[in-house]
Amino acid sequence: MTRLRTAAAAVLALSLAGLLAPAPAVAVERPRQHPRSAPDQRLTPAERQVNAFFAQYREDVLNGDLDGARQVREQYLTADLNARLDQWAAENDADPVFRAQNVPTGWSVTQGDSGAGHTTVLLTEQWDDGSTVPVDYRLRLPDLTIDDLENAPA
Where would one find the signal peptide in this protein (predicted)? Predict the structure, then answer.
């Protein structure tokens, strides 16, 4: 009987120790996607690329992380397009991707035409006043790098 009590006490002590011990930290990576954007699994590769760019860029701007937003632009856009966007921003005192001083509340993406080594994706920005602004993104087909935006500065 003493052995049984000792064994039961040991099992109980080990169980409690396991419950009281701190759990190991687990890193969870969440996709950076706005809830109002289209579901990622239903998108074409070009739509996913534009959606990912816009979601990450928007999140960094909303968080006031301008260095992060710049890095996102450098990751997804060509150097030439970045230079044109910088010039546009300086001349217009507005965000060159959103073409505004505020941030869209939502967006959607739709695959456009492809040809001559490029494809287009229509990104429709949705604003808090209910208005929408369509922006055509042009991507190079080999690597899906964004190399132009509709109405991007020449």
Answer: 1-27
Q: CA 53, CA 58: separation in Å to the nearest integer? A: 8
Residue type, 49: Q
Q: What is the pTM of this model?
A: 0.72
How many CB atoms lie under 10 A from the CB of residue 97? 25
C-alpha to C-alpha distances, 18 to 24, 101, 137, nearest whole angstrom: 12, 53, 53
Place of tokens 């590769």: 45
Domains parsed from the chain with CATH numbers: 40-149 (3.10.450.50)
Angle at 99 between CA 98 and CA 101, to 5 degrees: 85
